[in-house]
Amino acid sequence: MTVVNMGTPAPIEYVVPMSEPPGLVRVIATEADRRSAPGGPRIDPVSVLPALRFRNVSKTFREHGRVIPALSDVSIEVGQGEIVALIGPNGAGKTTLIKILCGLVLPDQGSVLLDGCDTGTTPLARRSLGVVMEGDRDFYGMLSVAENLTYFAGLMGVPGREIGGRVAAALARFGLVDLAGRQGRRLSRGQKQRLSLALGMLHDPRYLILDEPTLGLDPLALEELLALMKDLRGAGVGILVASHDLAALEKVADRAIILSGGTIRHQTRLDVPELKAGGHDGLLDMFKRHVGMPQGEVGQW
Ligand SMILES: Nc1ncnc2c1ncn2[C@@H]1O[C@H](COP(=O)(O)OP(=O)(O)OP(=O)(O)O)[C@@H](O)[C@H]1O
Ligand SMILES: [Mg+2]
User: Domain 50-140+189-290 - what CATH class?
Assistant: First the structure.
């Protein structure tokens, strides 16, 4: 039983059955809290629980009259202090889901809730998100590393007096001190990735969304990223990480979700014996079983 105390006197208690983790979650909130909470009276008992929630999200793209289904009725939850791995083949819909969360793509159906707040109707709720997109789209190529960090710190609401300290700390944490004056476009691939990660975490987000964060990182930088993710989890940050680096995910993730063809094929905790003793040896086997390809054919074109 987890108790979430949302109010002081005269609490209303909601008992909400949860499948993950198993058991019951009790939410205590005053009626006044509920009315004044972001999203107001629309909030239902489940959605006030602190978490990032994709609810029944569907998306279809249209291109030259062709219909391209990308996501179909996808519901995902990322709690505080957990790392959720989102895996699936190329074109599965992972990045589309993340773009919907950021408001870069509008869903046809469904919603995204951040601690009970609908990001569709309350875009400011996204300030509690840190997002690192794939590729080098997270920063301005013509600005230097330090200029990018300073600019985005302000944009994300870091108070002016704190920006200098945050930028210095980010440069040190991500091994960018010697590159502070270099333009973003002149960085190596792994250096760009480190800058993207630094930018995503600059404002101490409560939820961190990482799309292919390990791409281009050298082995030491990768190890540091995994250690950092564990630290952030310990500090209560909820992390959703989309990646093809199954070995890295196995080291840090608490749960895995397999997405394929725009639908969730499988969800599992990674701390259950299934992975270790169930006749297969990890995420790769799980991936092969649930994306519909016979064993041995994954990787053939
Ligand atoms: N703007 C767009 N217009 C048309 N189709 C799109 C658009 N964006 C994505 N798609 C299509 O939607 C599907 C899902 O793409 P998405 O980028 O979400 O996959 P992904 O799981 O992130 O794949 P990868 O592992 O290769 O990064 C693909 O079929 C893709 O071609
Ligand atoms: Mg992608």
Answer: alpha beta
Per-residue pLDDT reduced to its tens digit, 211-247: 999 988 899 989 989 998 998 999 999 999 999 999 9
- Residue 88: both structure tokens together: 């699936």
Residue with tokens 């799980």: 286
* Numbers of helices and strands, H then E, in the chain: 9, 13
**Ligand 2 centre and the CA of 94: distance in Å?**
5
3-state secondary structure of 106: coil
pTM for the whole thing? 0.81
Region at 189 (left for phi over 0; alpha for psi -120 to 50; beta for the rest)? alpha
Atom of ligand 1 nearest to the CA of 212: 27
Would you mind telling me the total number of residues written for the chain in this entry?
301
Q: Is 71 exposed, middle or buried (0-12, 13-18, 19+ CB in 10 A)?
A: buried
Residue nearest to atom 3 of ligand 1 (CA): 61
145 lines ligand 1 (CB under 6 A): no
Q: Which atom of ligand 1 is nearest to the CA of 259?
A: 21
* Residue in 59, 60, 61 to alter for ligand 1 test, most ligand atoms within 8 A of Cβ: 61
